[in-house]
């Protein structure tokens, strides 16, 4: 592997001069090559990847089957534009998505470029189908950085501050957070209370007759990996059915094996009308989609949906390989095993550090809440930032999350080896020990 003669410092200086500071960088080193769950920088330092490009690399970096499929497609053609001349990859991927997503009804799928674009188009489709305008998302939800998806997103800084005005007819409903439920309430009472709060929302804030769709992350991603109770999710789904509202599952971060099932919504015993997919769909290439009921998706007329680069044939080739890998290597099952190992380490750290609060996971979608003391549960954003900073300076790519910035989240590739995992967890342990009061 050829080593670059440009120095890290030179590239960092170029980045500072030519790239706006609005693009954040958790790690200031420069990637040179990557495989599995390890990235090697231009100085030949290795970094264990617990971030996975924010959940994009469930099959890992440079999986040989993905790179082979991409190379074969590149040799044929790059982009005739599906609107200009169709190609096999788009059609085959649409068929595959219809077959692997939940629901026994007739389905169709349409492809785009990014997660936010998929969410926007799910809303366009739901509005066209219902003839209604209002959109409901949830407190702590995250759906993207476009104007519409910013409007649906909860966290003001850094995602929304100074970027308004926002899209009208967008409302954020309450969402349960079991770790921070009132101490006097039982879990069952709290869940019932949140269901009533959700129903009351449609009395106090927006009438259900005006709502085109409710968009829910089965597990809130940027919000801090908040896992809702199954009873709540079923209540939301039932409410949508009762009132003719399109129920959209945003599986952009939760999909493709991350939670121990191919899609996270499968844990909740409900079937969405539409589902948005992206991130790990194409192993790092820009691709997204909306898949669901044909009667909803097929309502738009020709030319009303699409985009110049939507459904890139190269990205489609990668996605078809990803889906094969998911099945052949049984990655959802590996996700559960990986999640158990990360959880075990966090439980061990909790015994030594009283700032370790809630540890939660669904499959390998794992998070730990950092607090000033577990008795108080007060968020500690600074300590969280210190842990993430130490990790990123010592060989481990690590991310934070949460409305209050006090959650450490884990999105390691599902193909991570035992050796890579052990090395990463050792660095994580040092990061926690380093931040002991």
Secondary structure layout:
Layout: H1 8-18, E1 31-35, E2 38-41, E3 46-49, H2 52-55, H3 64-76, H4 88-100, E4 107-112, H5 115-130, E5 134-138, H6 147-152, E6 170-173, H7 187-204, E7 211-216, H8 230-243, E8 246-250, E9 274-277, E10 288-293, H9 294-297, H10 313-328, H11 331-352, E11 356-362, E12 365-370, H12 381-393, E13 396-397, E14 399-401, E15 407-410, H13 418-434
Parallel strand pairs: 3-13, 5-6, 5-7, 7-8, 8-9
Antiparallel strand pairs: 1-2, 2-3, 4-10, 9-10, 11-12, 12-15, 14-15
Helix pairs in contact: 3-10, 4-10, 7-8, 12-13
Can you give a write-up of this model?
- This protein is α/β, with parallel strands linked by helices and 437 residues long.
- It has 2 domains: 8-59 and 330-434, Aspartate Aminotransferase, domain 1 (Alpha-Beta Complex), CATH 3.90.1150; 66-328, 3-Layer(aba) Sandwich (Aspartate Aminotransferase, domain 2).
- The protein contains 13 helices and 15 strands.
- Strand 11 (356-362) and strand 12 (365-370) form a beta hairpin.
- Helix 7 (187-204) packs parallel to helix 8 (230-243) and helix 12 crosses helix 13 (418-434).
- The longest helix is centred in the C-terminal third of the chain and has 22 residues, at 331-352.
- It is globular.
């Amino acid at each position: 592997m050829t080593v670059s003669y440009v120095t890290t410092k030179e590239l960092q200086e170029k980045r500072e001069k030519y790239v706006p500071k609005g693009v954040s960088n958790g790690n200031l080193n420069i990637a040179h090559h990557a495989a599995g769950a390890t990235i090697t920088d231009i100085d030949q330092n290795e970094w264990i990847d617990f971030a996975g490009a924010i959940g994009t690399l469930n099959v890992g970096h440079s999986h040989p089957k993905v790179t082979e499929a991409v190379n074969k497609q590149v040799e044929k053609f790059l982009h005739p534009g599906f609107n200009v001349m169709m190609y096999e990859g788009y059609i085959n991927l649409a068929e595959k998505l219809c077959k692997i997503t939940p629901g026994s009804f007739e389905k169709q799928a349409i492809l785009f470029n990014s997660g936010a674009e998929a969410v926007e188009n799910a809303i366009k489709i739901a509005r066209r189908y219902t003839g209604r305008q209002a959109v409901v998302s949830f407190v702590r939800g995250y759906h993207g950085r476009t104007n519409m998806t910013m409007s649906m997103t909860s966290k003001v800084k850094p995602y929304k501050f100074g970027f308004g005005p926002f899209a009208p007819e967008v409302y954020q409903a309450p969402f349960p957070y079991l770790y921070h439920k009132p101490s006097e309430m039982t879990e069952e009472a709290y869940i019932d209370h949140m269901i009533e709060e959700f129903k009351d929302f449609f009395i106090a804030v927006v009438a259900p007759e005006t709502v085109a769709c409710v968009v829910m992350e089965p597990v809130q991603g940027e919000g801090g990996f908040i896992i809702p109770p199954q009873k709540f999710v079923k209540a939301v789904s039932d409410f949508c059915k009762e009132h003719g509202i399109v129920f959209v599952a945003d599986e952009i971060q939760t999909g493709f094996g991350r939670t121990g099932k191919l899609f996270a919504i499968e844990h909740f015993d409900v079937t969405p009308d539409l589902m948005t997919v992206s991130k790990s769909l194409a192993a790092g290439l820009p691709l997204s989609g909306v898949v669901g009921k044909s009667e909803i998706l097929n309502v738009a007329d020709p030319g009303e949906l699409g985009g110049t680069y939507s459904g890139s044939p190269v990205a489609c080739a990668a996605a078809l390989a990803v889906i094969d890998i998911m099945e052949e290597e049984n990655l959802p099952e590996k996700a559960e095993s990986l999640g158990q190992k990360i959880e075990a380490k966090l439980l061990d750290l909790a015994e030594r550090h009283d700032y370790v609060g809630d540890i939660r996971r669904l499959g390998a979608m794992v998070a730990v809440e950092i607090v000033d003391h577990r008795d108080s549960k007060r968020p500690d954003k600074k300590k969280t930032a210190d842990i993430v900073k130490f990790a990123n300076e010592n060989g481990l790519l690590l991310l934070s999350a949460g409305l209050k910035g006090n959650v450490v989240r884990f999105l390691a590739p599902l193909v991570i080896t035992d050796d890579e995992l052990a090395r990463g967890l050792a660095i994580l342990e040092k990061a926690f020990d380093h931040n002991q009061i």
